[in-house]
């Protein structure tokens, strides 16, 4: 509780402000909205924040029978072992390369698709295309992996049949170290490009049509309208989504890699997530792989913080 005095016509008026009481009254008057928020809050608390406590085993020689409280503390020993492990640099390089390829080729995809769909005037055609490009997002990688295995099969796959018709030798896409990353990046774009375009389509719907009308009056063609009106209007959304994407720059996608890769492409396809599964779960090296996962999370946090700061310097809002 705080007291405030206001001088008016030589008379002091004193009144008290009760911020806590007002806050409680606000929450009480909007209890239904807070009730709707509760499942989402509980989800993040239970599945995102509570498991963070388990990260302490990265600093222990964790024993499943002794538990967290009974396991011996070893400090930074697992981090030292991680940096001295030759396999770690190989999987870190694979993770970084695949993630960068996905960012370079996959991030602009939804923007381009949204702009193209926004220009379609035939609503039946537009909705048909939207349905087709959205559909893969709702299919699991187990299903899509089976489709890719059949489509890319060197003996019966439609892709290699077309290559044979053109006089090209069949390519073993999923067992080739030269082609495996290309398949990973291309299939990820195919699966997510339609879903990612939804946000941009919503942003495009909010652009004032008078801006385009004024541009047409000034003689601007479609390309100039996109460059000078559409893209600048989308810049805030693009920066925000780019920042969020950077936070997962080392999250390549465990399910996709696990379904498609094999021992022949470990050299180029083994990433942090699959390495953590093989070493941490199958070999029971829980503390070591927790240290690897914690390192990945710290890198993501640093990247997001740096790019968010840079975005603010360029005049964008950022995410905090």
UniProtKB/TrEMBL annotation:
Record's bilayer topology term: Multi-pass membrane protein
Pfam families: BPD_transp_1 (PF00528)
Keywords, comma-separated and alphabetical: Membrane, Transmembrane, Transmembrane helix, Transport
Gene Ontology annotations of biological process type: transmembrane transport
Protein's cellular compartments: Cell membrane; Membrane
InterPro entries attached to this UniProt entry: MetI-like, MetI-like_sf
Top-level taxon of origin: Bacteria
The protein, known as: Protein LplB
A Gene Ontology cellular-component term: plasma membrane
Positions of the ABC transmembrane type-1 domain: 92-307
Family classification: Belongs to the binding-protein-dependent transport system permease family.
Keyword Ubl conjugation attributed: no
């Amino acid at each position: 509780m705080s007291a405030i005095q206001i001088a008016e016509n030589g008379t002091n008026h004193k009144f008290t402000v009760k911020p806590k009481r007002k806050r409680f009254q606000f929450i009480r008057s909007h209890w239904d909205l807070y009730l709707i928020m509760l499942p989402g809050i509980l989800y993040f608390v239970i599945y995102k924040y509570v498991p963070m406590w388990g990260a302490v085993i990265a600093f222990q020689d964790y024993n499943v029978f002794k538990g967290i409280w009974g396991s011996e503390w070893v400090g930074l020993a697992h981090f030292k072992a991680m940096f001295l492990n030759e396999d770690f640099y190989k999987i870190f390089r694979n993770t970084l390369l695949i993630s960068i390829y996905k960012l370079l080729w996959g991030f602009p995809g939804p923007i381009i698709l949204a702009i193209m769909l926004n220009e379609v005037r035939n609503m039946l055609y537009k909705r048909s295309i939207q349905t087709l490009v959205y559909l893969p997002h709702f299919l699991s990688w187990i299903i899509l992996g089976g489709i890719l295995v059949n489509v890319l099969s060197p003996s019966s796959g439609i892709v290699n049949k077309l290559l044979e018709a053109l006089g090209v030798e069949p390519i073993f896409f999923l067992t080739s170290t030269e082609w495996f990353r290309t398949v990973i990046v291309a299939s990820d774009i195919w699966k997510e490009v339609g879903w990612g375009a939804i946000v941009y389509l919503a942003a495009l719907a909010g652009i004032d049509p008078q801006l385009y009308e004024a541009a047409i009056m000034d003689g601007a063609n479609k390309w100039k309208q996109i460059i000078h009106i559409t893209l600048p209007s989308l810049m805030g959304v693009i920066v925000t989504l780019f920042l969020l994407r950077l936070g997962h720059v080392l999250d390549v996608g465990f399910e996709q890699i696990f379904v498609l890769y094999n021992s022949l492409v470990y050299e180029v396809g083994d990433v942090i997530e699959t390495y953590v599964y093989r070493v941490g779960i199958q070999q029971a090296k829980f503390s070591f792989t927790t240290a690897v996962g914690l390192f990945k999370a710290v890198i993501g946090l640093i990247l997001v913080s740096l790019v968010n700061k840079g975005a603010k310097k360029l005049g964008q809002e950022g995410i905090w």
